[in-house]
Amino acid sequence: MVLHSGKTKRPHRRGGSNPLNGGADPAFAATLTPPHHKLAEDPLPADTALQLVRDELMLDGNARLNLATFVTTWMEPQARELMAECVDKNMIDKDEYPQTAELERRCVNILADLWHAPDPDAIIGCSTTGSSEACMLAGMALKRRWSKLGRSGRPNLVMGANVQVCWEKFCEYWEVEPRLVPMEGDRFHLTADVAVEHCDENTIGVVAILGSTFDGSYEPVAEIAAALDALQERTGWDIPVHVDGASGAMIAPFLDPELEWDFRLPRVASINTSGHKYGLVYPGVGWVVWRDRDALPSELVFNVNYLGGDMPTFALNFSRPGAEVAAQYYTFVRLGREGFRAVQQASRDVAMHLAGRIEALGQFRLLTRGDQLPVFAFTTAPDVTAFDVFDVSRRLRERGWLVPAYTFPPNRTELAVLRVVCRNGFTHDLADLLIEDLTRLLPELERQPRPIVDPAVSTAFHH
Ligand SMILES: Cc1ncc(COP(=O)(O)O)c(C=O)c1O
């Protein structure tokens, strides 16, 4: 046990009581600091341990004021209750928890239906810890499919420089050349012509993002697919598309039903999404679905029998909590199509309203307006010289708002933006409070002689 003095000492056993059985004792707790580097010798009463850890966690930010993250920060109490009931279930143990496995299967079916899979019996999919793992699995399938073509040369993956870091990780970990198409002028994401220019016979696939982490814009998946159709006609190269729908695959089906970005396009081989983003579940759950078994080579799927039954598994990790999968199924049962539409529309309405109000302030220029993902990016207007986006981010943080400022990737690294992610639970009322705070601090920022924050130490929050 570590006392405030820094000395390690056995805890004071009051009246010889056993701390394993003890109750809360604030006076006792006040003399303690929890271990930082090694285990203490003795146990603490459960209530004291709870109080110590809970007190430290007070220093974490307020998740509801976090406009940086895409990840769910609010669920209904009923969902929390369900998750608490499922914390002890191991997702991988499908033999012991067959009904959790069944809920996972139903979620995959529901997603495949939302994404217009042409043959529901042919699809194959699974839950993951998030989109990053889902993207790794999808990328591995693309690479394996390419390697079966027997081509020599180094495999490459074509994508915009605006991809989330998980794709760069995938390329590094699985030895695939990342062909990152740079931004150019006001083109902030991948487009069909530049995607095709970067392809060759060793391209394992093209990643199209719905929508971009940097500014919330949808990449033109249908145009990219059509350009690849034309490329195949010219060259014979049959290059599949993977859609990284980390956020948008749970927005577009409800708010943009006419937009063709999914399995309606025959070239789309696989799609991922984050259940814990606009799937409206607490972290961490993601999903990946393949169009058919041709898109997921069978040798990547392992069958294990040591948990009782004979179970197929395709995942990077093994044990994983089942609670998030149950919570995902809960949101599907609870909301239905219309409920999802209403929730996502509310987020889009707030995003567009807030973007409009920020534009009306006069000191900012919008790059996106929140009309695709409920996300928008903005920068300072050209005539603003006293402050920059990093100053705005820092000052908003003083009020508890987390609005990240970051620079864009090549070839627009000189462009720095602020980004606001509107999620379920971020209401018009909170948006108005944010505008009030921003309006209040702008005159102070304008009195600065010049921007004062070093971008190198600013937040760069890209997930
Ligand atoms: C487009 C995109 N892909 C992948 C990811 C990674 O998602 P996760 O945090 O679920 O692993 C993100 C996260 O923001 C993203 O925006």
UniProtKB/TrEMBL annotation:
It catalyses: L-glutamate + H(+) = 4-aminobutanoate + CO2. GO terms for molecular function: aromatic-L-amino-acid decarboxylase activity; glutamate decarboxylase activity; pyridoxal phosphate binding. GO terms for biological process: L-glutamate catabolic process. Residues 1-15 have a biased composition (Basic residues). Its cofactor is pyridoxal 5'-phosphate. Pfam families: Pyridoxal_deC. The keyword Lyase applies. CDD domains: DOPA_deC_like. The modification N6-(pyridoxal phosphate)lysine is found at residue 277. Its EC number is 4.1.1.15. This is Glutamate decarboxylase.
